[in-house]
Amino acid sequence: MFAIAIIFTLTCATTVKDYFHIWAKQETQYIVNDGDIMHAAKYINSKEGNYENTYVSAIHHQHPTMAYLANRYEDIMWLRGGETLVIPSIGPILYVFPQSALPPADWISSWESALVASPADTSGNLDLLAYHFNTSTDIPQLEFQSVYAKFGQVAEITGFRIPKLQTEGHLNVDLRIKILNSDKSDYRFVADLVDRWGYHWSQGFNDSFQSTQWQSGDTIIVRTQIPRRTGMPPGQYNLAVTIYSPSSNLALSSTSHDGKVSSTAQIGPIQVAPSTRTDELPIPQHDRSDTFG
Questions:
Q1: Which pLDDT belongs to residue 139?
Q2: Closest among 223, 147, 229 to 195, alpha carbons compared
Q3: Closest CA to 155 of 126, 175, 127
Q4: Residue 290 — pLDDT band, cuts 50, 70, 90?
Q5: CB atoms within 10 A of CB 257
Q6: Higher pLDDT, 61 or 289
Q7: Residue 230 carries which DSSP code?
Q8: How many alpha carbons lie under 13 Å from residue 266 in its C-beta half-sphere?
């Protein structure tokens, strides 16, 4: 019995040390347990102003921790993963970006004067960023190359930009989209990287601001990451962009300024660096017919 008691005591002591003094003190536990989301909810609850638009970035759409804690949860608009920025037509506007879902730094680099909160977490890391704007015209605008493509009465693309900071093995592209009418479909923005011979090398999409939240007059900036495939040569490419509904398997057709209708909006040219990926080679596209198989 004495030996069993010794083993039990040592096991308990080891468990307490591992749990309370090692595991529980790891910095990752703060994010894993939604510490930044809890503080974001507390911050939103502290705001007495009646914001016409409150945007919260999170790794999940309608984050359950925020649902439990936020007093005005039903008023929150969700920017999943920090991959979309919405500029509404009216204000006032409150943006809250927890550290687990910060937006690209270049999107908010000129927002210093609108910063209203940037507290640190228990480890001294940035916990969240909060910005307040009285009107949408107060929000500093990014520089885009002008393009135009209209997708029915739903939305129109008005610009694109290639960020200076790129992700390893990917091409990052920002699209600026104007929402014409709200829609309850499950739309996503899809962009194919196409060479001058019409070969579709790669595809990326963005549905991080769900289309059920779209409002007429909104301007949406979306960042799309398109993989640069193995064997992809450097040179000029175009983006073939569309708005696609997975549930109906339908894409909206594009209409240009001069009235030309096509299945996708052609944006570019874009200069693409050579791929450094070493995974599987792309499978060539073949036309199938009764004659050639």
A1: 96
A2: 229
A3: 175
A4: very low
A5: 9
A6: 61
A7: T
A8: 14
Four-CA torsion 95, 65, 223, 220, nearest 10 degrees: -50
Higher pLDDT, residue 182 or 20: 182
Q: Do the strands 53-58 and 93-98 form a parallel or antiparallel pair, or are they unpaired? A: parallel
- Whole-model pTM? 0.83
Regarding beta strands 188-194 and 235-245, do their DSSP bridges make them parallel or antiparallel, or are they unpaired?
antiparallel
Helix (H, G, I), strand (E, B) or coil at 237: strand
Comparing CA positions, the residue from 161, 160, 103, 159 lying closest to residue 131 is 103
Greatest alpha-carbon span in the chain: 90
Closest CA to 240 of 287, 189, 279: 189
What residues contact 60, with CB distance under 8 A and at least 6 apart? 80
Instruction: Please name the residue that has the structure tokens 């007429």.
Output: 216
pLDDT tens-digit series, residues 198-209: 999 999 999 999
The answer on pLDDT for 219 being more than 60 is: yes
In the structure encoding, which two tokens stand for residue 256, read together? 């240009």
Domain ranges of the chain: 36-138, 145-272
Indicate the class that CATH gives domain 145-272.
mainly beta
DSSP annotation of 105 reads G
CA dist., res. 262 & res. 242, Å (int): 10
Q: Per-residue pLDDT for 265 more than 70?
A: yes
143-170 tens-digit pLDDT: 999 999 999 999 999 999 999 878 788 8
Output the CA–CA distances (angstroms, integers) from residue 62 to 93, 150, 252, 259, in the order listed. Answer: 19, 29, 27, 39
Q: Rounded to whole angstroms, how far apart are CA atoms 99 and 96?
A: 10
